[in-house]
Amino acid sequence: MEEEIVRRPSVRFNTFNLVMFDWFKSIEFITVIDFIGTFAFAISGIRLASAKKFDWFGAIVVGMVTAVGGGTLRDVMLGTTPFWMGNGFYLIVTIFSLFFVLIFSKYLVHLNNTIFIFDAIGLGLFTVVGVEKSLAFGQPMWVAIIMGSLTGAAGGMLRDTLINEVPLVFRSELYAIACVLGGCIYWVCMQLGLAPVTTQIITAVSVIVIRVIAARYHIALPTLKGDHTDGADMDMHNTKE
């Protein structure tokens, strides 16, 4: 009887280990990328909300919109239920990101490029997620590249709009273009017959590297040079009305 009592905890512990092992084994690499991207984008949004003196609720809203905004638009265009509605873990990741920023705020403040670093990571990872999901829905490669770019860039665009900033995609070095180039690299890897995980890693890293290099050396598309009087004329017209 005593031996049976002693063994029961061991049996339960082994059963728990097997269940957890099976659970981790069942998780696909693309899912891991999705959650890491959510964490990275949520931190970039919450960190920016912190700089704007938002309260906790406002920070979570900005972080959540940053993390799931692009994927939501993608899923709506693909005609499916937005991914985060079927898995509450995305909200949990966002809340965890808030406490991560609160706990390590001193370190993140001293790290001047915090927002940029996490934004670049999220950009690369979500580009892969967008391309993969679009292809899974039977879309052609050119649509998948657009959807990958939307998944990567739209969250940051919504974030900047919420905090009353001109979106990075319109004013910064290569941003959405990095996603497009990443989608093209994904296609090249497919043509070369590389393994899915290898393709995903190469694509994500490529987007991040392109974004970092573009920011480091100020590589950007040419800007439209309009007449400076156009804005003044429009203001006078609006004043008269």
Give a structural overview:
The chain is mainly α and 241 residues long. It has one domain. Helices cover 79% and strands 0% of the residues. The protein is built from 11 helices and no strands. The chain has helices at 2-26, 29-51, 56-78, 89-103, 105-110, 114-136, 141-162, 168-171, 176-191, 196-216, 228-240. Helix 6 (114-136) packs across helix 9 (176-191).
Give the helices and strands, then pairings.
Elements: H1 2-26, H2 29-51, H3 56-78, H4 89-103, H5 105-110, H6 114-136, H7 141-162, H8 168-171, H9 176-191, H10 196-216, H11 228-240
Helix pairs in contact: 2-3, 2-4, 2-6, 3-4, 3-6, 3-7, 6-7, 6-9, 6-10, 7-9, 9-10
User: How many strand units?
Assistant: 0
**H/E topology pattern:** HHHHHHHHHHH
Poorly predicted runs are 1-7, 18-26
Q: pLDDT average, as an integer?
A: 84
The assembly state of the depicted protein chains is single chain
Structural class per helix/strand content? mainly alpha
How many separate domains make up the residues? 1
Radius of gyration: 22 Å
Approximately how much beta-strand content do the residues carry? Answer: under 5%
Helix content: over 70%
**Number of helical elements:** 11
The largest β sheet comes out as: none
Shape, per Cα inertia axes: globular
Distance between the termini: 92 Å
